[in-house]
């Protein structure tokens, strides 16, 4: 009986595998035309990715050196096609044939549900509801809050020992969190400072994304029993409970406030829009609130911290940015949204920061209809997971001279003209607008280096960040310290 059972299992597995190959014969035919590493039955190339998640992008680089800028690999039965050619990337991301989030985004669902970031059938309608909160008038009305929180950041930094280095991210993330809470979340300053488990969330977020990225890149963690035995399920449950309780508190406070008064259209935050729309369940409101909260405050904090660290280590660029601010804004401030757009040197440092520390190391889309690239010579079959390695593209020496160096001058107009415009895609093909403004910080503080920008160690956990912190020194600028008292 035992041998009969084993034989039946093996036979069923073989027949199932053959049936799968028959159903996906078109995919297999087109995949066979592409270069890529040899794949094992069932496992595909999964064994090639048994390493620390931070090494994933390095492995992609190795494959590109071997197989070119378009290649395929298999993770089990999932076909992934990596494309790094800038022209192909624009064509693919502009097509409605490749407009669904890829399977990697499923790993976000336990934390934030289906929606704007993770995809699913409802993300378009949810995004449409919140879009007005990002229009020009709303952003202009948010400027006083951004300026006030940036000044508060400067006050905090002024109290530090100017001779000692510190990680600016720890202070910046509090600034961006308060800014987002009082704008997109619609909270009062008092409510924002008293949210349940908010401080815990600030320091748990990066570890949470590390867990998600680890599961994305380690195929054995997809097996529930292994995920549970290694303690990962316990970690996930902790993060999910933390999210649920914090977001429930935010939504509760906004519901209570809306019973008293409804903000004007140009001042309304996203939580209010979701509540007043009547289109979302309570759980969906909380999930989308978390999505927009973390993708705003945490991403903005990483970008601002990178800008500040680079300016500290590039004194010539710090001087350029400061002098330009004095010319455009004047000595009194505050910085308006229109003035911010005129700060060209700051914009170059900002773009170089986005190039160096990609907000999304890679993005993945599902091909829903066959599409060709490279003048029809390559066809991506239906069901393929398209992978765009943004981090690798932003380090490609064909487009970026000495790509591992920090060089804001890459974005001088004369240098931009020489480069393929599609080689820089920090937000996919979306606009390069970032809510929040820590630039007024430069008004009050003289930044100084701590260490070096050579060989910065990177941490990859969905986004790319500085593994050892955004370390700087800072001292008050002469004559400006009294303005902060």
Main features:
485 residues; alpha+beta; Cytochrome p450; five-stranded mixed beta sheet; three-stranded antiparallel beta sheet; 20 helices
Layout of helices and strands, plus pairs?
Layout: H1 2-23, H2 25-31, H3 56-67, E1 70-75, E2 78-83, H4 86-93, E3 100-101, H5 109-112, H6 123-130, H7 136-158, E4 166-167, H8 169-182, H9 189-193, H10 198-217, H11 224-229, H12 232-260, H13 270-277, H14 282-313, H15 315-328, H16 337-342, H17 344-356, E5 363-366, E6 371-373, E7 378-380, E8 385-388, H18 390-393, H19 413-416, E9 426-429, H20 441-444, E10 445-449, E11 458-461, E12 463-466, E13 471-476
Parallel strand pairs: 2-8
Antiparallel strand pairs: 1-2, 3-5, 4-13, 5-8, 6-7, 10-13, 11-12
Per CATH, the superfamily is Cytochrome P450
Provide the CATH top-level class.
Mainly Alpha
Number of strands: 13
Number of domains: 1
Question: How much is the average pLDDT?
Answer: 88
Fraction of helical residues: 40-55%
Largest sheet: 5 strands, mixed
Distance between the termini: 84 Å
CA gyration radius, whole angstroms: 24 Å
For the largest beta sheet, what order do the strands appear in spatially? 1-2-8-5-3
The low-confidence runs, each spanning 5 or more residues with pLDDT under 50, are none
Structural class: alpha+beta
CATH architecture: Orthogonal Bundle
Q: Number of helical segments?
A: 20
- The CATH topology label is Cytochrome p450
Beta-strand residue fraction: 5-15%
Keywords: Heme, Iron, Metal-binding, Monooxygenase, Oxidoreductase
InterPro entries: Cyt_P450 (IPR001128), Cyt_P450_E_grp-I (IPR002401), Cyt_P450_sf (IPR036396), Cytochrome_P450_Monoox (IPR050196)
Family: Belongs to the cytochrome P450 family.
Pfam family, one: p450
């Amino acid at each position: 009986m035992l041998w009969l059972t084993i034989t039946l299992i093996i036979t069923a597995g073989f027949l199932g595998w053959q049936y799968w190959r028959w159903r996906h014969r078109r995919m297999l035919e087109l995949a066979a035309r592409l270069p890529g590493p040899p794949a094992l039955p069932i496992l595909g190339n999964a064994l090639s990715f048994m390493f620390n998640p931070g090494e994933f992008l390095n492995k992609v680089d190795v494959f590109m050196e071997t197989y070119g800028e378009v290649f395929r690999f298999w993770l089990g039965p999932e076909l992934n096609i990596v494309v790094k050619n800038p022209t192909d990337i624009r064509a693919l991301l502009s097509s409605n044939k490749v407009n669904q989030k890829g399977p990697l985004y499923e790993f976000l669902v336990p934390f934030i549900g289906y929606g704007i970031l993770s995809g699913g059938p409802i993300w378009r309608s949810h995004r449409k509801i919140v879009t007005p909160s990002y229009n020009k008038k709303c952003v202009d009305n948010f400027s006083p809050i951004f300026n006030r929180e940036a000044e508060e950041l400067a006050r905090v930094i002024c109290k530090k020992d100017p001779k000692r280095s510190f990680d600016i991210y720890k202070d910046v993330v509090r600034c961006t969190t308060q800014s987002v809470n009082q704008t997109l979340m619609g909270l009062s300053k008092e409510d924002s400072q008293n949210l349940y488990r908010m401080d815990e969330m600030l320091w748990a977020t990066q570890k949470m994304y590390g867990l998600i990225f680890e599961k994305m890149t380690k195929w054995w963690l997809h097996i529930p029993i292994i995920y549970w035995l290694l303690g990962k399920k316990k970690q996930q449950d902790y993060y999910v409970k933390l999210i649920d309780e914090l977001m429930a508190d935010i939504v509760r406070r906004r519901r209570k406030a809306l019973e008293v008064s409804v903000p004007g259209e140009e001042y309304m935050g996203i939580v209010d829009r979701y509540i007043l729309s009547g289109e979302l369940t309570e759980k969906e409101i909380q999930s989308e609130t978390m999505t927009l909260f973390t993708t705003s405050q945490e991403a903005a904090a990483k970008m601002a911290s990178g800008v500040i660290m680079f300016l500290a280590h590039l004194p010539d660029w710090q001087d350029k940015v400061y002098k330009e601010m004095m010319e455009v804004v004047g000595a009194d401030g505050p910085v308006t949204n229109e003035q911010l757009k005129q700060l060209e040197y700051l914009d170059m440092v900002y773009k170089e920061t986005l190039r160096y520390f990609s907000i999304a190391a890679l993005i993945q889309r599902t091909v829903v209809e066959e599409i060709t690239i490279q003048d029809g010579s390559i066809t991506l079959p239906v069901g393929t997971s398209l992978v765009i390695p943004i981090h690798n593209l932003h380090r490609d020496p064909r487009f970026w001279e000495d790509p591992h160096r920090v060089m804001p001058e890459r974005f001088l107009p004369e240098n931009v003209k020489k480069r393929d415009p599609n080689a820089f895609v920090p937000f996919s093909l979306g606009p390069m607008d970032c809510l929040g403004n820590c630039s007024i910080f430069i008004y009050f503080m003289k930044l100084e280096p701590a260490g070096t920008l050579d060989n910065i160690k990177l941490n990859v956990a969905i986004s790319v960040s500085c593994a050892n912190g955004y370390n700087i020194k800072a001292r008050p600028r002469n004559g400006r310290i009294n303005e902060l008292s």
